[in-house]
Design brief:
Helices cover 24% and strands 40% of the residues. With 164 residues, the chain is an alpha+beta fold. It has a single domain (28-160), classed as Sandwich (Immunoglobulin-like), CATH 2.60.40. The strands form two sheets. It has a six-stranded antiparallel sheet. It has a five-stranded mixed sheet with strand order 1-11-10-6-7.
Amino acid sequence: MMRLGFLQHVLPAFVFAALVVASASSATRAASPTIFGNNVLLDFGSKDGPHAVVTINKNRAATAALKIETFGTGVAGSKISIMIDNNAAPMFTHIFTKEECKMQDDRNYCATSVLGRVPEYGRLLTGFRKGSVSRLELETGGAMDMSHVLTLAGFDRAYMDDSR
């Protein structure tokens, strides 16, 4: 606690607040993947605040797809990245276009899809199935808007389970 007090007096107040918010938002969530119909959902963040949802269609046919949506954050030009485990290099990076972003329920909303026939889909799916944790980051104008880590425990079982 002594260190935080020292930092608070040395660093400008806005930098201190940003550090506190960033450390709180990057905590690992132990939530399991959610199954909704023929989809597996990975929810990064809290539904009460800015968050992102990755929806993976369990259909292993040519129509397989992965959808990435942000709620309450993100604008055209925002960069979204997904990392698996301790890999510094993102497995997926995308810059949202103005066609992908809009206002929905008085909140920013952006969405993009990764079709099953492109290499990024296979890399992400393999990472989700074999990885331990996934980190999703959203940057706007070079500043970090959101950074959340989610455990991937149970993802492979949820994805491979055809009983639902």
